[in-house]
Amino acid sequence: MPDFIRSLPLTGTTVVTVLAAVGVGCLLVLVAAQRPRRDRRTVGRLLWTALVAVAVPAAVTAVAVAALDLTLVEIPVTAVAAGVLLTAALILTGTAVVTRRSRAWWTVFPSVGAVLTTVLLVNAGYGMFPDIGSLHPEPSYREVAADELPPAVADAVPVDHWHAPTTLPEYGTLTTLPVPAPSSGFHARDAHVYLPPAWSASPRPQLPVLVLMGGIPGSPEQWISRGRATELAHDYQRKHGGLSPIIAVVDATGSTWGDPVCTDSPTAKVRTFLSRDVPDWLLSRFNADPDQSRWTIGGYSYGGLCALQVVANAPDTYGGFLDFSGDRRPTDEHRKHDSTVRDFFDGSEQAYRDANPEHLLHTRSDDGRYSRLHGWFIAGHRDRPAVDALHALSSAAERAGVDVSTATPRGGHDFGLWRDALRTTFPDVVRWG
């Protein structure tokens, strides 16, 4: 496929404007396909169509917010508009077929157009596929089964002393495998690990690590498929002799909808998993850089706050963090403080405060424990709760001595924002390593 076609955008204001015009055009054609009467019945039918077309998506949105504990900012306006378009198109197509029968066969064309426009509007809202090329991405890695991956070696060398050999593989390696959890016992889903071409060399360089986590609902593979993390690493290693950070996408929830609050509790020891089990595994299995101050941990939404929780509670485990659209403080799936304290901190407000990153940054920085940390906070300008959290937490982190950067680009609470956020911060991740 030619590059100019692959680069055609599927998101953005211009794309949404064009799609909206196409959608309205399809509806006008379907309105014209109704039985050619201007009586009260026809006008009434069109008014009911408009009412139902608005009411159905509004009801679905209300149910989703209530049942899935979402906020309105997590449902893009374009997705709701797509629902209105689809509902109206289906009703108008149905009435045209019923009232005009055989003469309405051609309405299949505007109907199909409306359906395709609906799909594209939803994609534009959530930013799942940013351009034509992302529908069929070019390879940025070769996938290798875990049992075919070379073992750890005893002669790995510091990356600063490593020299690239004459030949290296063109692509890095992506593998999927479980993370041993001897310290936490946490039952995590398999991790996805990207290893740059340099990792396959002999001697092997000890590479820094970027640990990434997802949100709720979510799965580790989303940082690969939607976040395009491996593409960033691939582009970087091509220009730097096969070198790039190891990227380990790990599970911090235990299931698609799980919410263990990223702490150690009677439910699960997630913080121990991320601060001990994951680093120990990366060191022993992948010969990662033993200087963990050169590592970064990050994530979006739940994963963003979780990254901050880990470094605030255990600042010696990672040197950097990325908090994309994270909340201000830990809460359970119901977003209730009382049930969070009851279920995850044995009812102790003091235990909750001692694990809350904002409290720790305010009260535990006198000994300089946070002064070597680097961090990024990024939230979409429409994501008001995340922007408020960004201001509060970045201010607390800065006062605690953390080297802080912030950004509130245009966007909401979706992968379009998080993908761009990772692209923005990746140069710093490399620099910190």
From TrEMBL:
Listed InterPro entries: AB_hydrolase_fold (IPR029058), Esterase-like (IPR000801), Mycobacterial_A85_antigen (IPR050583)
Pfam family, one: Esterase
Keywords annotated in UniProt: Membrane, Transmembrane, Transmembrane helix
Metal-binding among keywords: no
Membrane-spanning intervals of the chain: 12-33, 45-67, 79-98, 105-129
Molecular function in Gene Ontology: acyltransferase activity, transferring groups other than amino-acyl groups
Protein name per Swiss-Prot or TrEMBL: Esterase
